Amino acid sequence: MNDASPDTPKAPARPGFTERTPLPKRFYKEARAAATEDGRFRIELDGRPVRTPGRNLVAVASQPLAAALAVEWQAQVEVIDPMTMPMTRLANSAIDGVAPAMEEVGAEIVRYAGSDLLCYRVDTPAQLVALHAELWDPLLAWARERFGATFMLSEGVVHVAQPPRTLEALAAALPDDPLRLAALNLMTTLSGSALLAFAVAHGRLSPEEAWRAAHADEEVQEQLWGTDAEAQERRAKRFRDFEAASRAYALI
């Protein structure tokens, strides 16, 4: 079948599905990664190429990444649930949204660095002060050594401007691959920290370590006041996307 056919399967979009939206039924037997003539790898469902919601071919430069995407499709059972396909959603975003807007997406990451989570500290409670120092200070030192980026700290929520050279250094370190940039952007927005995203991308932190650092405040709150099951469930769902972004970055 021609891959421009109107019934070519589409990869699920990122948001847009709610509990009330009927999920499409699985209609294929096999999902696999297949090489293309230009040296990339596309996803095929029973031999038919998958396209993004924007009608672009889902094709990536990395065979391991394409194989991981195919695994997500193969893992679908009776219906196709986009929320269980975080790497596919990331690929859609990279192909449809990030590729034509690399400069804007990179600028968003740099803006996060300009008010990075790790730069805003508290003076109480003592447990949180200590945890911030334990988890965050080594990362600021790493950023200074790795990128030449020195960050200024603030107490409370008062904004502190970061040195232009610091932001320029991080801008220069942004990846030029749309999928990697999409993954870095997603890790940044989910964690609230460009520094944590860069640390995962460069192997300084595991996804689990970065996620803990991003939620130091919640960790101490739960120690003091107990856990909130709903909040933990929401964080777990967000971590699934964060971890998928880190895996995609590594597989490219």
Automatic annotation (TrEMBL):
Q: Which organism is it from?
A: Ancylobacter aquaticus
* This protein's record includes keyword Chaperone: yes
Q: Which UniProt keywords apply?
A: Chaperone, Transit peptide
Q: Pfam families, from UniProt?
A: ATP12
Stored InterPro entries: ATP12_ATP_synth-F1-assembly, ATP12_ATP_synth-F1-assembly_N, ATP12_ortho_dom_sf
Transit peptide among the record's keywords? yes
Q: Which family does it belong to?
A: Belongs to the ATP12 family.
Q: Name one GO biological process term.
A: proton-transporting ATP synthase complex assembly
The name under which this protein is listed is Chaperone required for assembly of F1-ATPase
Chain intervals for the UniProt region annotation (Disordered): 1-22
